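Format notes (please read before filing issues)

Several people have asked whether sequences and structure tokens are stored in separate files. They are not. Every record keeps both together, in the order shown below: the sequence lines, then the token lines. Line labels are part of the format and must not be stripped during preprocessing.
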Amino acid sequence: MSEEQKDFDQRFVDIDKLSPGPIRHANLTAAQTMVADFTFRAAGRFVFRTLEQWELGFMRDSNPDRELLFWTAIALTLLRYNVPSGPLEDAERESVVRGLLTISFGQHLDDRMLESRLRELMGALDGASPEDMIAELRAIYEPGEGGRSLNS
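Then the structure lines:
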């Protein structure tokens, strides 16, 4: 059994009985914190209200690097999604994040054109290294480092 399989335990539980898991990591590394910040600003803020709640989720995860990579892909797909009318309003961004999560969970969207576009953008990340994906987020969120504005 692989290490990844050892971490996975599938159970069906009553959703009303769900509660946050234990903190498995006392803190995130500096690199993990940076990626958590970038992904929160792009997509996580539509899932959790605060950066602290977002970071706690990764601290509870058995493999925060894997989860951060998942959210890096979600964030980049959202940021690459473009509409002819210009930058998305927050409500539209939240809708795209929810659509990306739905697709990631193996389900389909009612809006097949949107689903097709999001799948295309997600597919464009296949084969990209984690370092390249994080560098792209860094270029967006650290303008002093040559990054660009989200509204450009």
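For reference, the curators noted about this record: Confidence is low (pLDDT under 50) at residues 146-152. Helices lie at 3-6, 30-42, 51-60, 64-80, 90-104, 112-123, 130-141.
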